[in-house]
Each structure stands twice: as structure tokens, then as C-alpha cells.
Predict the structure.
Amino acid sequence: DRKPDLLPINISLNNTRTTIIKKVEIVKEDLLYPKLLQVTVQQLLDEIRNKVGGGTSELAWEILFQTGDRLTVLQQTSNRDDLALATAQIAAEPLQTLSINPFQTPDLKQVNLNIRYENNLRTAKLVSVDTTTKNVAPGEMLVAYVRLQPFRDQALVEEFLIELPQDLEGETTLVFRSGQYKDLDQDKDNHEPWDEDILSFGDLLVALRDKQQASELVIEIIIDEKPRLLQRQTFPFLIQGQETIEIEIQELTQDETEEEE
């Protein structure tokens, strides 16, 4: 009889005091291993913490393929009520994306998952955004001030220098958001977890490596109803919320246009 094909998973769970390493094997079936990993992580965290409660966790994946390819992914999450459940759901996401990709069978060899967790809610709310001016020229540097309110800590204001694209005209919108909010307006049941410009399995691996994180403040500008990335800034806490600013693009005179050239 043929034995079931198993996928080795090494899970390291650590906080400021202890590190626990668990080695498990789960059924190597595309439709099953994301859910099996999710259940495994939640069970381990519940056992170690011995309580249901909130906190913050940071996850780092190393996914090895039979082809010799290696994928590393980083992400963070926080939850007021059940950190184990929130962490387990995040833990399954890269495998879920790989399992449903239309390009090729992932053919996984091994997964190493490191989870660092704490009981504190290490989050900061995006409170407001202001700029020195809302009338700008294409290609100009715009100064923005972002006010963040960390959970139970002093508020802080961060200054950003934002270089605007050259191909701007009329009114447009600047978006300041957490890296975890990219798909808020999408129907999650029907939305594919990759952009339309991902055309191969290699492109998908690159996108997963470069995936925006909850600890990042992402600045985008809306051009032709589509967001264009301008900046990503990492913080020591998880960003929550989204703010937008409307700006007016000034038309360059002929002399100014010649100077630009």
C-alpha cells in the first residue's frame, strides 16, 4: 500500500522568556495543508499560553520547494480577544495562496515557521494626515505629517517627504494606510490574492516575498482610479486605519515645462 505523502513543518514559538520548537508532519494535499497548519498553530499557541486572550504576534515563514526554490515571507497581526486564532489564520495565508495558484503545483518540500508573540497590543492608530500645501506640481516633493496614536502610549507625528509622479493632472487622492488594508474594498470570497500583473509562478513568489505588512505605513496615489505605490515605511508597531487627502495638480507653464526638460 502507498503511504500518504507528508509535509514536514517546523514551528518555533517564542516570547521574551521561552522558545518552544515543535516538529510536525501534515498531509501534503494542496486543499488540506493550509487548514491543517492553521489548526496546528492555534492548538500549539493555546496550549503554551494556557489562556484565550489578546496580544501581538510576528510571523516569519521559510518555505522550501522540491525545485530548490526558497520563499521567505513576513507578516504581523494583533487581536484584542484571541491572539491564537488571529495568528493561526495568518499562518495559513502563504500556503493558501500557493495552494490555489493557477500557474503550477507548488510541490512543497518543507515549511519552517517562526512565531514571536506577546500579550501586549503593540498597535498604533492612524489618526490624521496633513500637508503643507494641497496645490502641487507634477514631480514636486510634498511634505506630509502623519499623526499616530500608539495603544496606551504617547502620540507621535511623523514627517514624510513624498515625491509625486510626473504624469499627474487635475485632482487626485493620496492614500495613507496600514499594509494590512489593501483589500478592504474587495469581495474576499471572490477576490484572487494576487494582482493582475502576476503572470507566472515566479511572479507570485516575488509578490509574496514583497507582500505589504501590518507594521508598514503605505502611501499611494490614485491615478486612473488605480493606486500607485509611492512609499512604504516600517514601524515598531502595527498600523491601524486609513486616511486620504485630496490634492490639486497645478498645470505647468511652458517656461516651467522647458525647465523640467
User: Anything to note?
Assistant: The longest strand covers residues 55-65. The chain has five helices and 14 strands. The CA atoms of residues 106 and 129 lie 42 Å apart. The two ends are 73 Å apart (CA to CA).
